[in-house]
Amino acid sequence: MTNLTDKKSAYSAKVEAQLEQLNGKIDELKAQATQKKAELSAQYYDQLEDLYAKRDDTHTKLQDLKASSSEAWEDLREGFEHAWSELTRSFERASKNFS
């Protein structure tokens, strides 16, 4: 069981750091959006709101993953990884639009 506990802990720490890093990048996009022309701002803010919602969902799934039992961990990890993929794809699309 220690091996799974170590695996859970290492995985959680890794993805938590990645989530925090992406959160900083989302904040950078927000700063860029404020510099765009007024007519485009609404579009950028809609995309940012979508990113923040997906980030919050991903964070919630990470917290669930960290608190999960050994039996539920694999299933919850799959759910987290799906949410993470959605978040990173949305971030890539938004960052292309902001550039």
Automatic annotation (TrEMBL):
Coiled coil (UniProt feature): 12-39
Organism: Romeriopsis navalis LEGE 11480
Keywords attached to this entry: Coiled coil
Protein name: Coiled coil domain-containing protein
